[in-house]
From TrEMBL:
This is Uncharacterized protein DUF397. InterPro entries: DUF397 (IPR007278). It comes from Paractinoplanes brasiliensis. Residues 12-64 form the DUF397 domain. It comes from the Bacteria.
Amino acid sequence: MLSGQFTAAGNEWRRSRSCVGEGHCVEVSTADGGARIRMRNSTAPETVLVFDVAEWRDFLDAIKTGELPLTH
């Protein structure tokens, strides 16, 4: 996984339908023809985490199984 400052202009960022207003929303987009998934916080869009497909699946699996607990 990469993290840091990336130019995100021109990318289509998506967020959950449950995210409303100007809240802290997770946004995702694809890059490199879908080979990479980018994730950022809508209130701090200059910092982006970049995953390859396998890393993204592992990340989601860790959340789903409770290995990586969600906190608010």
